[in-house]
Amino acid sequence: DIVMTQSPDSLTVSLGERATINCKSSQNVLYSSSNKNSLAWYQQKPGQPPKLLIYWASTRESGVPDRFSGSGSGTDFTLTISSLQAEDVAVYYCQQYYNVPYTFGQGTKLEIK
Amino acid sequence: EVQLVESGGGLVQPGGSLRLSCAASGFTFSNHAMSWVRQAPGKGLQWVSTISGGGGGAYYADSVKGRFTISRDSSKNTLYLQMNSLRVEDTAVYYCAKYSGYDFYYMDGWGKGTTVTVSS
């Protein structure tokens, strides 16, 4: 199984500041044929289901604010929120869809300082 | 608008069975692979099972293999999860999710979940 490890487990950032969440996979999740990384980021606010933010490691889902961006390749990935807003308080998960089982990271809880 | 509405959760004793349903609307159901993902109380997300758009291919997490069966009925636009031999550790909110297309890529739509509690 591909193990997804996020860091940090929790993060406190001031409004307007940058937040960075890392995700490391135990195996390469890059499809060599398409040169796409099978990595998605989800946001889960309290009491709500997850919401897709980013797919193919760096493609923003329609309607997601452009302050959210994804980067990385192979085994190391990053979700960046360029200017934290109050509504961004949530738990963020990365997930690989390269191989069954489609594993998630343990989650990173983002709070406001 | 995509809508996924789960039902069928509840309280069941260890060893018991439940069948979850997910009613889908707002998209062409048969064109999309579907999944169940669960979340134990206070814990993270765990992928449970995925089924292809046509229903011919299904995959399971090792923790549920042989006990859970995923299926779909395109005439009813409904996804199912038959859960047998339930264990205390199966207690979770179960989410139904749709994939972006026929392939097993990212999940771009989620239901609000249904709660399964396994307890004596």
What's this, in brief?
The complex is a heterodimer of chains A (about 110) and B (about 120). Helix content of chain A is about 0%, strand content about 50%.
Key terms for this structure?
heterodimer; A: 113 residues; mainly beta; six-stranded mixed sheet; four-stranded antiparallel sheet; globular; B: mainly beta; seven-stranded mixed sheet; 11 strands; 51% strand
Describe this structure in words.
The complex is a heterodimer of chains A (113) and B (120). Chain A is an all-beta fold and 113 residues long. Chain A is built from no helices and twelve strands. Chain A has strands at residues 4-7, 10-13, 19-25, 30-31, 36-37, 39-44, 51-55, 59-60, 68-73, 76-81, 90-96, 108-112. In chain A, strands 2-12-11-6-7-8 form a six-stranded mixed β-sheet, with no helix packed on it. In chain A, strands 1-3-10-9 form a four-stranded antiparallel β-sheet, with no helix packed on it. Chain A is globular, with a radius of gyration of 13 Å. The relative contact order of chain A is 0.34. The mean pLDDT of chain A is 97. In chain B, a hairpin with a 7-residue loop joins strand 9 (92-99) and strand 10. By secondary structure, chain B is an all-beta fold. Chain B is 0% helix and 51% strand. In chain B, the strands form two sheets. In chain B, strands 2, 4, 5, 6, 9, 10 and 11 form a seven-stranded mixed β-sheet that branches. The A-B interface holds A 38, 40, 42, 44, 48-52, 55-56, 61, 91, 93, 95, 97, 100-107 and B 35, 37, 44-47, 50, 59, 61-62, 95, 97, 100, 104-113.
